[in-house]
């Protein structure tokens, strides 16, 4: 079996973190979403909404963190590594807010490839806002659209994960691996 570097994407509140946590609980190598730690670290420094106040800085920090996750996934001995959000997520969010970004962002996305992308569609019934998630459900849906467009622009075929229990979603994902 060839190494699988699998990214789970979707708008805010679509169930990514629950899946990653359950996959990790089952013994799979997983890398968590890093935007929460970037956001919370900025708050400690007095910047309430780094993404809204300094989107380019926020995106640069995310890009660096996700590059490190990709390198760690490539170096990992595990046959399958799951990552909560990938590099193209950074560009999708920049598209969402209508902001521009340096050409290096595009180059990084092209240089760091994943083997499979699983997309979690917006799901109103499980969506909740919290201290690090400030988007409304409608905004989360728009972000999901930008995510799909951005990943497809990099040539990825997205595998949509059905709305179901966490266990059934995991079985679906595992069933689509090599």
TrEMBL record:
Keywords: ATP-binding, Nucleotide-binding. It comes from the Bacteria. One of its GO terms (molecular function) is ATP binding. Pfam families: AAA_28. Transmembrane segments: none annotated. Residues 6-169 form the NadR/Ttd14 AAA domain. This is ATP-binding protein. It comes from Flavobacterium litorale. The lineage of its organism: Bacteria, Pseudomonadati, Bacteroidota, Flavobacteriia, Flavobacteriales.
């Amino acid at each position: 079996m060839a190494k699988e570097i699998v990214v789970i994407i979707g708008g805010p509140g679509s169930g990514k973190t629950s899946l990653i946590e359950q996959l990790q609980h089952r013994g799979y190598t997983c890398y968590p979403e890093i935007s929460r730690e970037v956001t919370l670290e900025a708050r400690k420094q007095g910047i309430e909404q780094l993404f809204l106040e300094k989107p380019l800085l926020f995106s640069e920090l995310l890009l660096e963190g996700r590059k490190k996750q990709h390198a760690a996934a490539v170096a990992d001995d595990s046959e399958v590594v799951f990552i909560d959000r990938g590099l193209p997520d950074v560009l999708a969010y920049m598209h969402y807010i209508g902001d521009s970004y340096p050409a290096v962002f595009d180059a990084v996305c092209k240089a760091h490839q994943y083997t499979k992308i699983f997309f979690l569609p917006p799901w109103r019934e499980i969506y909740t806002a919290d201290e690090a998630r400030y988007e409304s459900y409608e905004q989360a849906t728009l972000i999901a659209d930008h995510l799909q467009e951005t990943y497809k622009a990099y040539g990825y075929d997205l595998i949509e994960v059905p709305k179901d229990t966490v266990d059934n979603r995991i079985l679906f994902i595992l069933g689509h691996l090599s």
